[in-house]
Amino acid sequence: MSPNTEIAFTLNGVRQRATVAPGTSALGLLREDLGLTGTKYGCGEGECGACTIAVDGRSVNACLMFAVDLDGRTVTTIEGLGGDRRAQAVRHALVEYGAVQCGFCTPGMVMQATQLLARSPRPDAAAAKTAIEGNLCRCTGYQKIVEAIVAAGERLAKEGV
User: Do 60 and 117 share a structural domain?
Assistant: First the structure.
């Protein structure tokens, strides 16, 4: 059996150190060891997007990434988007457009939409659909989610963000 590995990374703007066992996923580290339960365990196979996090600014399925691969990286979870204006606009629009029902997919959707708005401040519906294509929602369908993402971009543009 391989020994545990010490890693250091930046998590939601704070430098972290952790000791991880071989085979521990990034999702396991975040949820079980660090108590960040906003990142959801959905399928464990990278199919549903409920575990979406950003690693060095790119969306990643945390269930598919080994925790040791976070070493030296910058990680953002849904908890780290609390004060982000883009994330706030997305969350507000999701509620306004009735795009939230059970809420299980919401953290992954917000992560993807926030990343999209950082790259493309005023996305159209096609860009919004593409951004969330790896995220499953079993309750709302996708039209209201897409409309909410587009509306969030429009709102941010009016506010000059």
Answer: no
